[in-house]
Write a structure and sequence with these properties.
The chain is an all-alpha fold. The chain contains 4 helices and no strands. The chain has one domain. The protein is flat, with a radius of gyration of 14 Å.
Length: 104
């Protein structure tokens, strides 16, 4: 169950990272409320996952999911560059996440 909590915590981390872009410096109320809600849910789920998972593994996987998802959504939603090197680096992060899951 902890891995499920951690997976969803990572998804909500993506939500708040992308949400920050849409808050326009916290000047737009709805994106700000949704971003803060995403932050709260993400941290709450991470806390639940940490009850049984090692902190180093859980934190690395949580940030890895957030990093990969945010980078991909940045490319898709915000028109950020999708260079071969950037995509390869994202792939390396995915390999690291999978590796940590396999050894934990």
């Amino acid at each position: 169950m902890s891995w499920i909590y951690l997976f969803f915590a990572g998804l909500f981390e993506i939500g708040w990272a992308i949400g920050l872009k849409y808050t326009d410096g916290f000047s737009r109320p709805l994106p700000t409320v949704l971003t803060v809600a995403s932050m709260t849910i993400s941290l709450g789920l991470l806390g639940l996952a940490l009850k049984t998972l090692p902190v180093g593994t859980a934190y690395a996987v949580w940030t890895g999911i957030g990093t990969v998802g945010t980078a991909l959504l940045g490319i898709w939603l915000l028109g950020e560059p999708a260079t071969a090197v950037r995509l390869a680096c994202i792939g390396l992060i995915v390999c690291g996440i999978v590796g940590l899951k396999l050894v934990a």
